[in-house]
Amino acid sequence: MTAADSKLPLRRFGQTELLVTPLCIGCAPLSDMPRVFGYSVTEAQALATLRAAFNGPITYMDTAGAYGDGESERRIGIVLREIGRLPAGYILATKVGRDPRSGDFGGEQVKRSIERSLRLLGLDQLQIVFLHDPEHTSFEKAIGPDGPLEMLLHYKAQAIIQHIGIAGGPVDLLIRYVETGAFEAVITHNRCTLLNRAAGPLLDIATRRGLAAINAAPYGGGMLAKGPDAYARYAYREASGAIIERARRMAALCEEYEVPLAAAALQFSLRDSRITSTIIGMSHAERVAQTLELARHPIPDEIWPRLDRAGFDTDDL
Ligand SMILES: NC(=O)c1ccc[n+]([C@@H]2O[C@H](COP(=O)([O-])OP(=O)(O)OC[C@H]3O[C@@H](n4cnc5c(N)ncnc54)[C@H](OP(=O)(O)O)[C@@H]3O)[C@@H](O)[C@H]2O)c1
């Protein structure tokens, strides 16, 4: 199947003309970040994953310059050059932000970040660029003169960037960015999962304002896909005993219904009408087909209130 034969429904990306699938391929794990994910990913494995992704029906992909300090974009660029171009109808989003060495998050740094993304991906235009992890600078500096937002708008005015979004962690901070009216999309991560639901107010505001609301890390970075005993980490760090216990209760509950915990975790996000698309990280080629199966796995309605009762956090991480 090619990307053009998409069997997934398409959704409008906020108020833009772009159409995205409700599932999105997340390219953080395939950049090889052992400190974040706890395992390494070879280039060959990453390229095989990307080839499967570009040949499958999920036609929305998410990366960032920060993933492996350019390695995710470099690997995507290799496969795009093999294919010859971004497949028709495909939407590729990236993110730009601070210099990981100096911490510089100014406008000139963001310019370097944009130029590097263009070069590594081998593209002359970027469809969607998110300002990445703004918690690493102040709100005032980010939206002020010579700051990163100004630089993104400069590239947008030149049509090198088509659409801009904001992607990061703290919910209250992201709400402030959404309320500027400057962004067309927002990514929240690890905060709209079976285990943590802190992103609720952000999703409400984003939806009300017509932004594309993108939910990243429905598995909390892996725990809800691999299981709390196989992978006892949530949001890129060791999980607390309380989180592990809850995840175990959820896994046991899912087992009663013969539902994989991963299917419940994924569909928890997919069934939320506020969410435009859900980004799933992966670093194995077979994950593309597995993700489609998990998204379609039958789940009885009665499981949802029972999963709620297993407990979840509403505090920000
Ligand atoms: N600040 C931001 O904007 C931000 C923050 C976080 C995430 N994101 C984006 O959202 C994406 C998703 O987040 P994430 O990757 O951190 O976490 P995630 O999607 O919650 O989980 C990814 C993990 O789940 C595993 N996994 C996926 N499908 C699986 C399956 N069918 N069976 C077993 N394991 C499976 C992956 O394993 P394998 O590696 O073994 O395939 C990987 O370890 C990222 O890749 C990134 O694109 C953005």
Strand fraction equals 15-25%
Q: Order of strands in the sheet with the most strands?
A: 3-4-5-6-7-8-9-12
- Ligands in the structure? NADP nicotinamide-adenine-dinucleotide phosphate
Level of helix content? 25-40%
Mean pLDDT: 96
Largest sheet: 8 strands, parallel, barrel
Number of DSSP strands?
12
> Uncertain segments of ≥5 residues (pLDDT<50)?
1-6
Globally, the shape reads globular
The quaternary organization reads as single chain
Determine the number of helices (DSSP H or I, runs of at least 4 residues).
13
Q: Structural class of the secondary elements?
A: alpha/beta
Cα-to-Cα separation, first versus last residue: 39 Å
Q: N-to-C SSE series? A: EEEHHEHEHEHHEHEHEHEEHHEHH
Structural Rg: 19 Å
Short overview:
The chain has 317 residues and is α/β, with parallel strands linked by helices.
Keywords:
eight-stranded parallel beta barrel; single chain; two-stranded antiparallel sheet; globular; alpha/beta; 40% helix; 317 residues; 13 helices; 12 strands; disordered N terminus; binds NADP nicotinamide-adenine-dinucleotide phosphate; 16% strand
Q: What does this protein structure show overall?
A:
- The chain has 317 residues and is an alpha/beta fold.
- Helix content is 40%, strand content 16%.
- The strands form three sheets. Strands 3-4-5-6-7-8-9-12 form an eight-stranded parallel beta barrel, surrounded by five helices.
- Strand 8, helix 8 and strand 9 (212-216) form a beta-alpha-beta unit.
- Mean pLDDT is 96; it is low at 1-6.
Topology:
Elements: E1 11-12, E2 19-20, E3 23-26, H1 34-37, H2 43-55, E4 60-62, H3 71-83, E5 91-96, H4 107-121, E6 126-132, H5 139-143, H6 148-157, E7 161-168, H7 171-179, E8 185-189, H8 200-209, E9 212-216, H9 223-226, E10 233-234, E11 237-238, H10 241-256, H11 261-270, E12 277-281, H12 287-296, H13 303-309
Parallel strand pairs: 3-4, 3-12, 4-5, 5-6, 6-7, 7-8, 8-9, 9-12
Antiparallel strand pairs: 1-2, 10-11
